[in-house]
Amino acid sequence: MRIFDPHIHMQSRTTDDYQRMHSAGVRAIVEPAFWLGQPRTGVGSFVDYFDALVGWERFRAARFGIRHHCAIALNPKEANDPRCAGVLEVLPRYLAKDGVVAVGEVGFDSQTAEEEKAFRYQLDLAADHGLPVLVHTPHRDKAAGTRRTLELVAASGLPPEMVLVDHLNETTVAMVDDAGCTLGFSIYPDTKMDPVRMVRILAERGLERVVVNSAADWGHSDPLSTAHTGREMLAAGFGEDDVDRVLWRNPVEFFGRSGRLLLADDGDDAAPDLSATYAGNSILRGARPGPGEV
């Protein structure tokens, strides 16, 4: 099973997670920009964070055989903080970088006027840069927030095939499907979707334009939930080609519209050099003893 996780926040995960993901078949990911868990106090904090996404985190993932891509944006939660408004001005420099395959996460959290303003602005940025958009739908009043999301996407003029609407559930599938956008489902314990429900939706709706992600972050989450979903699909009677379509080909097709995917050639699974450095730093800590040394 080969897996492209199209939404995972690896900066909050450990190297053990990268090892487990690679063993489970994960070979590529997209890490969208999101909030820190506590308020950021200024634009400089975002600049450092964006630099890490396009630099160190891509390097770190590669040490474990995983191709790292990212999406860059001012996330909806922090769009409400006036200290973060200047982030919108620095986004264009990052949206031009290799490995940045989308604008995201954008959308709604509390569905405020400030969130909508930032959402509209970033939809325009995506159009200007020819990039897909990864949209976060709110955890509260999800149906209303998703409906408004689709209205803004339609008004932006972006083709629906350039928009992935994420964190969907049974109440929002139909409206996003009707709009022609890519349907994103986060297999996230307790709060979003689980593998059994996901497989039921796939059986009822079909596999076209569906992507499945872990959305794993610093919360109660599982970076292997994509693999769990693949196994649940097989147990329910889906074929290996069906699993490959949902867990690999669909996300590759969507993010491939950026023209910036950094995927390895088929069969390229050589062991990475763990001693390699980025900006003078490696993932190792201290020197390893040589043969015969203690």
TrEMBL record:
Transmembrane segments: none
Entry-linked InterPro entries: Metal_Hydrolase, TatD-like, UCP005295
Pfam name, any one: TatD_DNase
Entry GO MF terms: hydrolase activity
Statement: the UniProt record of this protein carries the keyword Signal: no
Keywords for this protein: Hydrolase, Metal-binding
Keyword Metal-binding included in the entry's annotation: yes
Family membership: Belongs to the metallo-dependent hydrolases superfamily.
Protein name: TatD family hydrolase
Protein source organism: Nocardiopsis sediminis
Lineage summary: Bacteria, Bacillati, Actinomycetota, Actinomycetes, Streptosporangiales
